[in-house]
Amino acid sequence: MKVVSTIAGLREASAALLSGQREPSFGLVPTMGALHSGHAELARAAARENTVVAASIFVNPLQFGDPSDLERYPRSLEADVELLAEAGVKLVFAPEVTEMYPAGEPMVRLSSGVLGTVFEGASRPGHFDGALTVVAKLLHAGTPALGSYRAYFGQKDAQQLALVRRMVADLNFPVQIVGVPTVRAEDGLALSSRNRFLSASERQAALVLSRALRLLVGRAERREPLDLDSAVALVRSEPLVELDYFEVVNPATLAPLAENCRETPFNGQALALIAAKVGSVRLIDNMPLG
Ligand SMILES: Nc1ncnc2c1ncn2[C@@H]1O[C@H](COP(=O)(O)OP(=O)(O)OP(=O)(O)O)[C@@H](O)[C@H]1O
Ligand SMILES: CC(C)(CO)[C@@H](O)C(=O)[O-]
Ligand code: BAL
Q1: Are 39 and 127 within 8 A, CB to CB?
Q2: What is d(CA 212, CA 194) in angstroms, rounded to the nearest whole number?
């Protein structure tokens, strides 16, 4: 395992790892560190499909609106490197903020458009502009001398995944985006680095999110009306959970399904999206329907 902290080092090390391979292919796994089994799954998926896998660990200030969220974001580089090595990653890029933003905040940055203003974007204004800007920088920084390569993102961050897909399509990045299914704890809670801030009772209460999503999955499988209102009521019945949004949307555009699709028997492809605050922690989750 090689750990580098500069863009030049990343390019040099990825070129060295790829050189001499008969059929080289490259996968990049962008992360913010504090890694868990969800990240390991992204890395394993990348290792199955590419001859060389690099992961980045960078807590990107540009995507944090709330300074206290940035300040308390967990950091655990040594353990992260170990987890990535076990998952088949050969190269870790862990830059300082000054390496990524040497001139301070970038003047020119990505705009995530209307898709970046709804759901997570409504609660975290500017978040997706900042996330897309750093993803674009990472994709450029990691670009090996190959025609194209792959980058891996979790389906847990469904809006981010949809936006990254739009970015590479709209701006002709030579990168194939791979979405990896959400890894969950045995009790159903989607793994997230921020889960560690939940108290025992908050963690228990947070299970209502995946339970409510599973309710919709069951109805969709049985081709019943989704009856989103009753699923919303289930979440609202949990006093420690403050619901932000719960919607059924088109997976690519995140446009909410028309009202009548929720009341007539479900017959299609959709994504149920949920976000809530549990104690001081904002949690998101989603499940595909149909
Ligand atoms: N449970 C999970 N299953 C699959 N992929 C995940 C999971 N959690 C995060 N990822 C993916 O890992 C990548 C890095 O995410 P990130 O480092 O922000 O971790 P995180 O656990 O989502 O942290 P947080 O949500 O608390 O910021 C993203 O593409 C994200 O979608
Ligand atoms: C994609 C990403 C690494 C960009 O900072 C981040 O938003 C994340 O961890 O999901
Ligand atoms: N996992 C998405 C990154 C963030 O919450 O800022």
Answers
A1: no
A2: 20
Q: What is the DSSP letter of 147?
A: S
Q: Are 54 and 91 in contact (CB under 8 A)?
A: yes
Q: Is residue 285 lining ligand 3, measured as CB closer than 6 Å?
A: no
Q: For residue 192, which phi and psi values (nearest 5 degrees)?
A: -155, 145
Q: Which ligand is nearest to the CA of 36?
A: 1
For residue 224, tell me if it sits in a domain: yes
Residue 95, pLDDT > 80, answer: yes
Strand partners, 3: 92
Q: What is the CATH number of the domain that holds 86?
A: 3.40.50.620
pTM score, whole prediction: 0.96
Query: Could you tell me if residue 223 is left (phi over 0), alpha (psi between -120 and 50 degrees) or otherwise beta?
Result: left
Instruction: Please state, for a pLDDT cut of 90, what percent of the chain lies above it.
Output: 87
Query: How distant is the alpha carbon of residue 15 from its chain centre?
Result: 27
| Two tokens, residue 103 | 């001139």
CA distance linking residue 217 with residue 183, whole number of Å: 17
Domain of residue 65 covers: 2-180
Is-catalytic flag, 127?
A: no
pLDDT in tens, 251-261: 889 999 876 55
Last residue of a domain, one of 123, 149, 180: 180
155 within ligand 3 shell (Cβ under 6 A): no
Mean pLDDT over the full length of the chain: 94
Q: What is the CATH number of the domain that holds 277?
A: 3.30.1300.10
Contact 288, 249 (CB under 8 A): no
148 in the same domain as 228: no
Buried b (16+ CB within 10 A) or exposed e, 92-106: bbbbeeebbbeeeee
Instruction: Round to whole Å and give the CA distance between 257 and 235.
Output: 20
Out of 124, 157, 210, give the residue to mutate to test ligand 1, the one with the largest number of ligand atoms within 8 Å of its CB: 157
Count up the domains in the chain and report the number: 2
